[in-house]
Amino acid sequence: VQLQASGGGSVHPRGRLRLSCRASGSIFRGHTIRWYRQPPGKQRELVASMTNNGIIYYDDSVKGRFTIFRDNANNTVFLLMDSLKPEDTAVYYCNADLEVGPPGGPYSISDFWGQGTQVTVSS
Questions:
Q1: Radius of gyration of the chain (CA)
Q2: Which of 48, 61, 86, 107 is surrounded by the most beta carbons within 10 Å?
């Protein structure tokens, strides 16, 4: 099972980016999904999360600007980032609790990370 993140890049302030994270492999069901970021020289921090029954959390710094959503049919999670600021510059990581196992089971829930995608906001 792998998580493949994409969509990062360089934008000007007030720009927009959409990050994607697709899970592949023998996945029975996805549970909580999360986006983290690690700004230069700082610790990794939680940006947003979404449970599989739709409970959403946003860090105060991104409320009203970022939107997390998921496409369960395609095992993909997205982070839509609007009104980007220079302080949003970071490596962004997706993280997911996935119920995985061989076809027919048994299944167990494990924690998976994507490889990180760079977001740079500057004028």
A1: 15
A2: 48
Residue with structure tokens 């029954």?
Answer: 53
Structure tokens at 103: 């076809």
pLDDT in tens, 46-69: 999 999 888 999 999 999 999 999
Q: What gap in Å lies between CA 27 and CA 104, rounded to an integer?
A: 11
Distance, in Å, from the CA atom of 113 to the CA atom of 15, rounded to the nearest integer, reads 26
Token digits for 104? Answer: 């027919």
Cα–Cα dist 3/114, whole Å:
5
Determine contact, residues 3/19, Cβ cutoff 8 Å: no
Written as six digits, the tokens of 22 are: 């697709």
| Dihedrals phi, psi of 75, to nearest 5 degrees | 50, 45
Question: Within 13 Å, how many C-alpha atoms sit on residue 93's CB side?
Answer: 16
